[in-house]
Amino acid sequence: MVRIIWMLLLLLIGASAWAIQPAVLADQEVRLSLGPHTRYLEDRDASLDATQVLALPDTAFRPVEGDRASLGRSRSVWWFRIDLQNTRTQPLSGFLEVNYPLLNDVRLSLLSPDGQLQQQESGDARASQLRPVPVRNLWFPLELPPGSSTLLVRVKSSSAITVPLYFSTSGASVVAQERQEGLNGVLYGVLLALFCYQLLLFLFLREPSQGWYLLYSLNAILLPFSFDGFLFHWSPVLQQVAVYLLTFTFWLSATQFTRHFLNIPQYFPLLDRALRLWMLVLAAALLAAPLIGLPAWGVLATLATLIGSLLLPACGAHVWRKRLRAGTYQLAAWAFLLVLLAGLACSELGLGLLGEQGTTLAKLGLAVNLLVLAVGLADRFQQLRKEGLYSHQAAEEALLQNQAKSRFLAKMSHEIRTPLNGVLGMLQLLKETRLDHSQRFYVDTIASSGSTLMAVINDILDYARIESGKLSLEHIEFDLEEMLSDTLNLFTAQAMEKRLRLHMSLDEGVPRHIQGDPTRLKQVLTNLLSNALKFTSEGQVRLDVSRRRKSDGSERLYFGVSDSGIGIRQEAQARLFESFSQGDSSTTRRYGGSGLGLAISKELVEMMGGHIEAQSTPGLGSRFTLNIPLQRCGEARDELFQLLVGRTALLASLDGFALDAIGRLLGRWGMHTERCRIPEKLPEQLTGFDEPPLLLLIAPWPGSVEYWLDALYPHLAPGQRLLLVCPPEQCRQLPASRSSLHMLGLPQPVGVAALRKKLVELLMEPTHPLVPIEDPAGDSQVPCILIAEDNPVNQLVVQELLKKRGYHVRLAGNGAEAVAEYHRSPGAVQMILMDCEMPEMDGFEATLQIRLLERLRKWPAVPIIALTAHTLDEHREYGLEVGMNDFLGKPVDKQLLHATVERYLSTRTLVDN
């Protein structure tokens, strides 16, 4: 039974072999595909020669399926046998065409009817001039005598075994080649024209996606150019290497172009990550040739073609599903080429799907691909142009809206502050009159509500300026110690009212003078301290300043504001720095506020190049920390450091935080400090020093100030220097200094500037008597101040505030009257308070007129202070340009008004003297 089966199989094989008919050549001009007449044999160990193959029976061969042999990649030697029958009576001349230029070694054996064996050799490893026919494909000249001849074609190649065989006479060959070269010329011409057109556009537009298109199209031109065998004229050895190399660079450039064309990094980050990984794999495969060898490298190139042909259309489909127009062009461009490239890759693997015209169809699909993508780019540029036009129009509209917002902001600032100035100013005057208990309660309530309203308005205006980009920072040198002391002094009354301890400490490395914007830094610290005092009912509030050096050598200043207040819930901390946000809905009802302070602080700190954050535990307190870059100034010699370095101080207090804060301040100036928190041990500690130390008695301490002195006097050495740090009301009622002691008082909270001043007085002028808080000394020649203000209520407010301080006042209803009044008697006016917005002539124009008059008459410049509801930076800058010396905002703060007036009047007095 087994023998019967084997016989049937042999009969079937023989029948298939017998079905291969010889190629009949009957015409004088003929071009015939030899695929249907071809049989092949695999010689795995390359042990056969032409004679041995010719001697093999027909059953040893297998027929070629289709119009050409497509056997995939193989290291074997392959023999192809074709029987040719010349039915003419004369020999027939022509060519055997092997129209696949990437075969390394091709050898032809022709067995003529008379038994003679002729052999020829070719292949892409041979230069053009060494081939039997010097063309890019592998051709062999043939002379077929009448009768039957047998052709043997031996092929060995590292690329795919693709062997399209034709017999063609000279005339038919010329016609076929003209047709093929004409088609190639059209395809390459289209590709080159697209490349040149896009190159010109790129030179003008400089669009990145167009640059990647140029690189992709250049690869798309060079790859078929190399595949067709045109590169063998340059170097036959590098032709196959060039094909594989260009395959990898083709897919690299195609992937990169796809990313930019479809805006994948912007809209699809996960897909972009996958494409970048794919490009990394391609780059690794591109560089792997020396490690894996040329055959394996070719397999990787084929697999890259298969994967790329599926991946890039899939990207287009994904983007198209998201309703983006670029995805439509991507999908259309790759749809046809997908089938063709996949078919070519399958042919390389031994699956001939596209047939004889596969290469031509692939080049045609490539041209269509580039053309569709070029149309997509043109559409993209048109969209970008429209978007640019719309963006330009939107920018112009935004500019107009921003200008309108700025005008509205300035107008609202002026219109809101002007009546508030009258309300709050009159309240300040009313509070200084004789009031009963109920009236004073009503006035205090109105004043508190007005101040709260003013704070909310300031926050809203600052936030609006930040949002509109109108807020700019100064970059000037300033005294950090003085700025911190001024900031702390603002909260003295509030801390006293709530019986809270308020401390400030500076580390030793913090410089005294730095560069930056002191006003905005003070605004941030003021907001943080205000919140800390607002949300703390008992305990203490601390301001700590330190310096840290980063690993890159840069320095930063750290400011920490800590309190022992109510704390902040964890879920509320994430919303702290958002606009109009507070810890919870009850916070606003209980404590008030707009919820803008921390948002403004965050914006200001980030504008300074810093960072702000918060840590808090409910019920235990909060700590806000901000840091900004430290920009040092040239530090002058600190006289206090020279005075205190090496000295010893003994600090006594029941408050450990106070000891720590003042101890750090003294340490900045080189002092050694010891501390005492137990009153009974203070006399014992005093006797332990070789020389009498500087003694600081700091409240809280048992008893009154008189009790402190009475209890300590017997233990104090003659000439003992003593600094009493106590609440302001106790400092005003200090007992007379003992004759043997050098004693001064310092009110709490302790600021750096105040402590510095008292230490200098105590150590350099030890006999200076202890005096209560000083009142401003009156001058025998009372200064006269000209007020230029059109609002009668504001005139009355400012006039009364200055008269109560003892100044003479003159009034002007507009800028023209102010100029006339000053021109009439310039020597009688020591200062002008100038409103900016007045009828007939505003304050800016009036200032210009006054400065011009002074230059013409050579008069000394009178200080001109803008007293205005305009608080925007552009108004301040313009005021300084026209000659104003300073700005005071409305509503008028009495203390700030008096301080500013006295500062400029004292400066002018010194200049005059």
From TrEMBL:
One Pfam family of this chain: 7TMR-DISM_7TM
Q: Which SMART domains match?
A: HATPase_c, HisKA, REC
The reaction(s) annotated as catalysed by this protein in its Swiss-Prot or TrEMBL entry are: ATP + protein L-histidine = ADP + protein N-phospho-L-histidine
Membrane-crossing segments per the record? 186-205, 241-262, 274-293, 299-320, 332-354
Arranged from A to Z, the UniProt key words for this protein are: Kinase, Membrane, Phosphoprotein, Signal, Transferase, Transmembrane, Transmembrane helix, Two-component regulatory system
- Domain Response regulatory: residue ranges: 784-905
Record flagged with keyword Transmembrane: yes
Modified positions (4-aspartylphosphate) are D835
Q: What is its EC number?
A: 2.7.13.3
Q: Which Gene3D superfamilies match?
A: 1.10.287.130, 2.60.40.2380, 3.40.50.2300, Histidine kinase-like ATPase, C-terminal domain (3.30.565.10)
Query: From which residue to which does the signal peptide run?
Result: 1-19
Quote the InterPro entries the UniProt record gives. 7TMR_DISM_rcpt_extracell_dom1 (IPR011623), 7TMR_DISM_rcpt_extracell_dom2 (IPR011622), CheY-like_superfamily (IPR011006), HATPase_C_sf (IPR036890), HATPase_dom (IPR003594), His_kinase_dom (IPR005467), HisK_dim/P_dom (IPR003661), HisK_dim/P_sf (IPR036097)
Any one GO MF term held by the record is:
phosphorelay sensor kinase activity
Q: Does the record's keyword annotation contain Kinase? A: yes
**What positions does the domain Histidine kinase occupy?**
411-632
**EC main group:** transferase
| PANTHER family documented for this protein | HYBRID SIGNAL TRANSDUCTION HISTIDINE KINASE J (PTHR45339:SF1)
Q: What is this protein called?
A: histidine kinase
